[in-house]
Amino acid sequence: MMTGVNTDTENISELLKTYWSIQRISAGYADQNAASLGLTIQQLAMINVIYGTPGISVAELTKRLIITGSSAAANIDGLISLGLVVKLNKTIPNDSMDLTLKLSKKGEDLSKRSTANAFMYKAMMKVFEN
């Protein structure tokens, strides 16, 4: 009986090693993609979430990306300064988490380019074609 358990454990161990190797490689490509666009990986993630959800609140953005409000605020300020994100609120809300966002035309173009550049995305789509 122990032989079967050891074999299962070894197989699971190998599977996990492969998974983490793929994760590291994938993260490296994501970092390269973001850097090629002049952004951090977190900024690029924000751009792509906002692209898919125009009018998203800062609160919802932090939930989707699993980041803190202060991290979101710093990145959003940077993206606004770069002319990639615009605030939709006519007045500034009492709680900055209620601020709603969308991409500028420049931000939309950058999001589209990020998807076009995404090597891992293209590779995964090739796998699913067959």
TrEMBL record:
It comes from the Bacteria. Pfam families: MarR_2. InterPro entries: HTH_MarR-typ (IPR000835), WH-like_DNA-bd_sf (IPR036388), WH_DNA-bd_sf (IPR036390). SUPFAM superfamilies: Winged helix' DNA-binding domain. Residues 12-130 form the HTH marR-type domain. GO terms for molecular function: DNA-binding transcription factor activity. This is MarR family transcriptional regulator. The lineage of its organism: Bacteria, Bacillati, Bacillota, Bacilli, Bacillales.
